[in-house]
Amino acid sequence: DYKIPHEEMDEIITKATKAPSSVNMQPWRIVVVDSDEGKAKLKDAFGFNSRQLTTSSAMIIIFGDLQNYEKAEQIYSDAVD
Questions:
Q1: Across-strand partners of 61?
Q2: How far apart are CA 61 and CA 67, in angstroms?
């Protein structure tokens, strides 16, 4: 029944995303699902392992960007600037 405040969730994610990746391109995209409607949309993707989905305050879904190398020049240029 506890809901993590959005400010706290934002702080957690902001700190976590500052960790460098292996080539410092941070190839992750993060989605936070904290509404019952959003969780209902995800239920089929979790199959039988949906207990955490239905009982958690929020789901943090992390996607890996497999095409991050296409943005390498921009990412490294921004870091130099």
A1: 31
A2: 18
